[in-house]
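User: quick one, fold this
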Amino acid sequence: MQLMLSYFVIPAIALLTASLGGFLTSSSVNTWYATIAKPAWTPPGSFIGAVWTVLYILAAASALIVWNTFPRNDRFWWIIGLFLVNAALNVLWSYVFFGRHWIGTAIFEAVLLGLSVLALMLLTWTQSKTASLLLLPYLLWVSFATYLTYSVWALNK
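Assistant:
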């Protein structure tokens, strides 16, 4: 029963994270965000949304591997907690950037988000290289998004 429940709960958490982030983003993407300066290489919103969809699926798959194969010890619970912190940081970035328009703060928040992904990769590597590598596109995208956030800040400060 525990195995079956995880296949519902973990994707539901990923969907909730995506939905909250999407809601916070949509609140100002066509108003405030449309009016600020952005670098010419900023991807279109539809591409960004598609990338995030893939990343949420990969992160959920990684979390499922951890939940269903890792031994239940202190390390396991630290990793599960870090997945939840990562989800919160993911939503928080949307709130800070799109909800509050605190671009400078969003840079630091994005760095924390990236560090949480890197920590997840490192913590899962010894037990499951697959779980770890599923997070690599997430780390690469957050690194890109952090640089994009910095670039937007530099153009609008």
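User: anything notable?
Assistant: The chain is about 80% helix and 0% strand.
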